[in-house]
């Protein structure tokens, strides 16, 4: 049975270079041209392209037997599909919907509760950037086997997004999560604005995809940790979430992070409250998984590098005796090697570090905890083949 992390681990041990594009981030058009996750048309032969989340497959399309329907040239046996209704909007969605499904929007676009005010000209490009990042997030969640359900389907347990600007009183929205609703200030899609805020907040990294991965971490804490058998161990690793969030927030912005925060946290903000430590660490787990998967898809192999990094050992893990601990260590150590190489590449171009973070052993334990939670929650790519 296909499992994402097991496949990733095998590729780390024996790097994958081949044609099974389910395992990477590069696909091929019917003309042989390489095509990528966000593409809706091949630039070489101009074929229409569509992404089918059910098999993590980007394929060229052929008109189907019914009007408005398409077949995947790389998987014609999959049946007929329709293109998401957001294809021809500024969102430029390239995702597909099975023809038998009643909805007009794909699973990613179904999560939108509020889209930006498109009477504001700048919001067209902002929305495109936001949706590009959100689709990558949703595809990764599905690949990890996590349940993704819209609030329009299940108000109490579902997920939704509000992409909004200033209100009638001129107040900017606050990016955050509340009961499955993720709100994002649409100005975060402006590079200059986001960089200004990053510097004001003394953050080493700030990106749309990072926002989404962090905020969705709060959502999955509610779904996977709250009231579960994992809760006591969560408190032992991250702290007691019953501590006042309002007081923790006030203290953090008044006093800042403890001077020794880097000894046990992935970021200064992670020290603010156990919920934020979870969300920050969750986001880094998703960063690492996606980046290693992408690197392997391009044939990059950190094992061939001769970098003088001391690898993490089993005692750094949350549960060293777990049967998959060796594979997780290989993943973490591959990431350390890869991020070191990519940081040097960034510096060679005069850019900031690709990954401006250092992972201490306590963070490795937290990452392993999150990994095991996700694995228990599903982790099976074949559980969502009918998406």
Assembly annotation: single chain
Shape, per Cα inertia axes: globular
Helical residues, percent: 25-40%
Strand order of the largest sheet: 8-9-11-10
Query: What's the N-to-C terminus distance?
Result: 18 Å
SSE class: alpha+beta
What is the tally of beta strands?
Answer: 11
Mean pLDDT: 90
Figure out the total of helices.
9
Strand share of the residues?
5-15%
Radius of gyration, in angstroms, nearest whole number: 21 Å
Give the topology string: H per helix, E per strand.
HEEEEEEEEHEEEHHHHHHH
> Sheet with the most strands?
4 strands, mixed
Residue ranges: pLDDT <50 for 5 or more in a row?
Answer: 16-23, 380-387
Can you put this structure into words, describing what you see?
The protein is built from nine helices and eleven strands. By secondary structure, it is an alpha+beta fold. The strands form four sheets. A four-stranded mixed sheet has the order 8-9-11-10, covered by helices on one side. Strands 3-4-5 form a three-stranded antiparallel sheet, with no helix packed on it. It has a two-stranded antiparallel ribbon with strand order 1-2. Strand 1 (26-28) and strand 2 form a beta hairpin. Helix 4 crosses helix 7.
């Amino acid at each position: 049975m296909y499992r994402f992390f097991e496949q990733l681990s095998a590729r780390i041990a024996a790097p994958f270079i081949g044609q099974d594009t389910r395992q990477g981030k590069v696909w091929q058009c019917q003309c042989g041209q390489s095509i990528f996750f966000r593409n809706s048309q091949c630039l070489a032969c101009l074929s229409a392209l569509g992404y089918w989340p059910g098999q993590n497959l980007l394929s060229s399309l052929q008109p189907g037997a019914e009007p408005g329907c398409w077949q995947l040239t790389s998987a014609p046996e999959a049946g007929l599909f329709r293109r998401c209704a957001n294809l021809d909007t500024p969102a430029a969605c390239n995702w597909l919907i099975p023809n038998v499904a009643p909805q007009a929007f794909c699973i990613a676009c179904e999560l939108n509760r509020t889209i930006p005010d498109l009477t504001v000209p700048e919001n067209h490009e902002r929305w495109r950037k936001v949706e590009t990042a959100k689709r990558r997030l949703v595809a990764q969640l599905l690949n990890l086997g996590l349940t993704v359900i819209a609030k329009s389907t299940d108000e109490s347990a579902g997920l939704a997004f509000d992409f909004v600007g200033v209100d009638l009183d001129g107040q900017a929205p606050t990016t955050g999560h509340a009961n499955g609703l993720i709100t994002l200030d649409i100005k975060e899609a402006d590079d200059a604005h986001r960089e200004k805020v990053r510097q004001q907040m003394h953050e080493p990294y700030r990106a749309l995809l990072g926002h989404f991965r962090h905020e969705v971490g709060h959502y999955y804490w509610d779904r996977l940790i709250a009231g579960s058998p994992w809760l006591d161990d969560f408190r032992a690793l991250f702290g007691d979430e019953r501590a006042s969030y309002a007081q923790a927030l006030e203290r953090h912005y008044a006093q800042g992070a403890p001077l020794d925060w880097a000894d046990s946290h992935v970021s200064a903000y992670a020290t603010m409250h156990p919920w934020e430590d979870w969300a920050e660490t969750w986001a880094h787990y998703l960063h690492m998984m996606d980046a290693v998967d992408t690197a392997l898809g391009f044939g990059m192999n950190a094992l061939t590098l001769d970098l003088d990094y001391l690898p993490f050992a089993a005692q750094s893990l949350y549960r060293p005796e777990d049967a998959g601990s060796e594979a997780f260590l290989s993943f973490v150590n591959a990431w350390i090697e890869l991020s070191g190489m990519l940081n040097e590449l960034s510096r060679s171009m005069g850019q900031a570090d690709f990954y401006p973070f250092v992972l201490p052993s306590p963070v490795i334990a937290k990452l392993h905890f999150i990994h095991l939670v996700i694995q228990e929650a599903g982790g099976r790519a074949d559980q969502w083949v009918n998406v």
